[in-house]
Amino acid sequence: MKRESRREETIKLSEPQQAVIYLMQEGWELGKSLTMDGRAWMQKNGLGKGGESKDVRTTTLFALVDRGLIEGKAREFPKQRYVLTEKGKQCKV
């Protein structure tokens, strides 16, 4: 009989990655410009809602996608929205 491991996967994140996950868990939205500048940013209460915003390095965004913690949700020119995956929602930061 095969025994399943119930050990939780430990994910090591950099400080900027931790900050993005934490803010998204707190209701901030992450977006990336689809224009030539390719800028990424987060905004409190959602993109375009007039809340406080913070710039995010695209390398941080792509690292979180590669780790399966966030995924692209809606691609609406001129921006791509990102959401937490189930793995990202459960990530402890």
Structural summary, described in words:
- 27% of the residues lie in helices and 28% in strands.
- The termini are far apart.
- The chain is globular.
- The protein has a 5-stranded antiparallel beta sheet.
- It has one domain: Arc Repressor Mutant, subunit A (Orthogonal Bundle), CATH 1.10.10.
- The chain is α+β, with helices and mostly antiparallel strands and 93 residues long.
- A hairpin with a 2-residue loop joins β4 and β5 (79-84).
Helix and strand layout, with pairings?
Elements: H1 15-25, E1 29-33, E2 40-43, E3 53-56, H2 58-66, E4 70-76, E5 79-84, H3 86-90
Antiparallel strand pairs: 1-2, 1-5, 2-3, 4-5
CATH architectural arrangement? Orthogonal Bundle
Q: Can you tell me the residue ranges where pLDDT is under 50 for at least 5 consecutive residues?
A: 1-7
> Strand sequence of the main sheet, in spatial order?
3-2-1-5-4
Q: Under CATH, the topology is which? A: Arc Repressor Mutant, subunit A
> Care to count the β-strands?
5
Oligomer: single chain
Helical percent range? Answer: 25-40%
Tally of structural domains? 1
How many whole angstroms does the radius of gyration measure? 15 Å
Q: So how many helices?
A: 3
The succession of helices and strands, N to C, reads HEEEHEEH
Main β-sheet: number of strands, strand sense, barrel status? 5 strands, antiparallel
| Binned strand content | 25-35%
Q: What's the CATH C level?
A: Mainly Alpha
> Roughly how many Å apart are the termini?
36 Å
Q: What number is the mean pLDDT?
A: 89
The dominant shape is globular
Q: Which secondary-structure class do the elements indicate?
A: alpha+beta
